[in-house]
Amino acid sequence: MAAELLLPALCTGLGLGFLTLATRSVLGAVRLWLRGLRVMGRVTPRKGIDRRPGGLVVFSDHLGRGLVLDPGWRGPLCGLPPVGGTVPVVYVRNRPASARLWTLRYLLAPSFGWFLSSTLAFGTGLAVTP
C-alpha cells in the first residue's frame, strides 16, 4: 500500500513546491509594480568575446550611479529592443543591483514556468494514482 502511494505523494509534493515558487515569483513582480522605481535604460552591445544573444541594459539609479543589467537568455525572448533602443527598468529603491526589465513578459516569465511545472507535477500525480 505504501509503495503504491509513494509516486503520487512525491508528485504532489513537487507540485506544491513549484506552486510555492510560482506564487513567490508573482508576489515579487507585484511588489516591483507597486513599490519599484522605474527608469529608462539604453541597450548596449556586448563585448566581442561574449557570444550570448541580446545586449546589456545600462541605466542610472536614484542616486545617479550607472548600473548594468544583464537580461540573460530571456532578454531577446521577452521584448528586449535592438542595440541603441531604450527599455524601461524597474528596481527596489534599496537594491538597484537586482533590477529587472519593465516588460510584462520579462516579469511574469519565471512564474509562468513554475505554474506550468506545478501543473505537470500535479497531473502526473493524478495519472499514476491507483
Which key phrases capture this entry?
24% strand, alpha+beta, single chain
In short:
48% of the residues lie in helices and 24% in strands. The chain is an alpha+beta fold and 130 residues long.
Write the layout of secondary structure elements.
Blueprint lengths: L1 H34 L1 E8 L11 E5 L5 E4 L4 H4 L8 E7 L2 E7 L2 H24 L3
Antiparallel strand pairs: 1-2, 1-4, 2-3, 4-5
Helix pairs in contact: 1-3
Any overview of this molecule?
The protein is α+β, with helices and mostly antiparallel strands and 130 residues long. 48% of the residues lie in helices and 24% in strands. It is built from three helices and five strands. The chain has helices spanning 2-35, 74-77, 104-127; strands at 37-44, 56-60, 66-69, 86-92, 95-101. The chain has a five-stranded antiparallel β-sheet with strand order 3-2-1-4-5. The protein is elongated, with a radius of gyration of 19 Å. The protein starts with a helix and ends with a helix.
